[in-house]
Amino acid sequence: MNAVVVRRLGGEDWRTWRRLRLAALADAPAIFHGDVEEERAYDEARWRAWTEDGVKVAAFDAGVPVGVAAGRTSADRTGVVELFGMWVRPEARGGRIAERLALEVVAWARETGHSQVELWVIGGNDSAERVYRRLGFERTGVYEVHPHDPALRKYVMTRGTRTHR
Ligand SMILES: CC(C)(COP(=O)(O)OP(=O)(O)OC[C@H]1O[C@@H](n2cnc3c(N)ncnc32)[C@H](O)[C@@H]1OP(=O)(O)O)[C@@H](O)C(=O)NCCC(=O)NCCS
After folding, report:
1. Of 10, 20, 78, 96, whose CB is crowded by the most CB atoms within 10 A?
2. Which residue range or ranges hold the N-acetyltransferase domain (predicted)?
C-alpha cells in the first residue's frame, strides 16, 4: 500500500487546488458554499491567487490528489484562522486523511501567529464532526440557519492552536 503524503500547496500547484476544489463542490454541493459552475469559469490568475491566499493543504496517494483542506485568516477576528473546504475523495475515506489535513492547517495557523482555528459544520454531518472532536474542536454554541436549506443549522467549532495535537 502507498503511504499518503500530505503537504501544503504553492502557487505553482494551482491546478491541484482547482481539481480538488471542483471535485469537492461536485461531490457535496449541500456542504460547501461555492458554486461549481461559477468557480469552473475562474481563470489561471484567479486560481493561482486563491491557492496562495492563506493555506491550501492536499493529500496525495501515489501522486494522485485525494483530499484537501484550506485555511484563511479571519477578516474580522484577530488571531483566528477559518478552516474550510475540507474534503476527501469518497474512495479514500476512512483512513484518517482528514485529521492530517486539518492538523496541517492548525500547524500553519500556529506558525503564522494565530491562536484559534474555527470552522463551520452542518448539523448531521456526523463523520466530519467526529473528526473535528477527535482533534479537540468543540462547538461554541454559535450557529446559523443553512443558507440553502432552512431545515439545517451550521455550527461553529473552535480549538486553540497550542492545545491538543
Ligand atoms: C468528513 C471527511 C472529510 C472525513 O474524511 P476521512 O479522511 O474519511 O476521515 P476519517 O477517516 O477520520 O473518517 C471519519 C468518519 O467517516 C466515516 N467513514 C469511514 N469510511 C467511510 C467511507 N468510505 N465513506 C463515508 N464515510 C466513511 C467513518 O464512520 C469515520 O467515523 P469514525 O469517526 O467513527 O471513525 C469526508 O467524509 C468527506 O470529505 N466528507 C464530505 C465533505 C465534508 O463533509 N467535509 C467537511 C465539511 S465541515
Report:
1. 20
2. 18-162
Extract the C-alpha cell encoding 38: 461559477
Name the phi and psi angles at 106, rounded to 5. -60, -40
Residue nearest to atom 33 of ligand 1 (CA): 130
> How far from chain centre, in Å, is Cα 107?
13
What is the tally of structural domains in the chain?
Answer: 1
CA distance 120 to 53: 19
Look up the domain containing 51 and give its range. Answer: 4-160
With respect to residue 165, please indicate whether it lies within any of the assigned structural domains. no
Q: Is residue 15 part of a domain?
A: yes
pLDDT at 2 over 70: no
- pLDDT tens digit sequence for 72-131: 999 999 999 999 999 999 999 999 999 999 999 999 999 999 999 999 999 999 999 999
For residue 132, give the CATH number of its domain: 3.40.630.30
